Amino acid sequence: MRALSLCILPLLATLAMGLCPAPAELKDADGNRLCARLYADDSPYYDECCAGASLDVKPGDDIPYVLLRWTNRISSLVVGTKCELTVWSKRPKAGDTKKFTAGAQPRLVEVKRGLLGNWDNVISSYYCKCN
């Protein structure tokens, strides 16, 4: 029975992440390490998250003004291994702030922002660093 549970745990972790890549797999088209990848789409179904248009974030990117087509549009994200993504709800680096460490966040609607809000479609600035 223990062997069965050891096989099921990785499968459950994969299902929870859906289409989101593993943090260690974040690379750009040239194979360079990424700090994070931000996605425009999420879904009520985890296996459909981290979809749609994506924005690659390089280590050291310090963006006080997210491009207009990305402002308040980010719905899911993945932060690379040994990296930290700090986000703000307003431009330039103002309003509420949140730090995401290595891992996938397939549904930002589930991440609390204050008493009543969440981080879905509110990211307007970010800074990403890796060790």
Automatic annotation (TrEMBL):
Recorded topology in the membrane: Peripheral membrane protein
InterPro entries, sorted: Syncollin (IPR028137)
Gene Ontology CC terms, in alphabetical order: zymogen granule membrane
PANTHER family assigned: SYNCOLLIN
Pfam families recorded: Syncollin
Name assigned to this protein: Syncollin
Function per UniProt: Functions in exocytosis in pancreatic acinar cells regulating the fusion of zymogen granules with each other. May have a pore-forming activity on membranes and regulate exocytosis in other exocrine tissues.
Organism: Eleutherodactylus coqui
GO annotation terms (biological process): exocytosis
Subcellular location: Zymogen granule lumen; Zymogen granule membrane
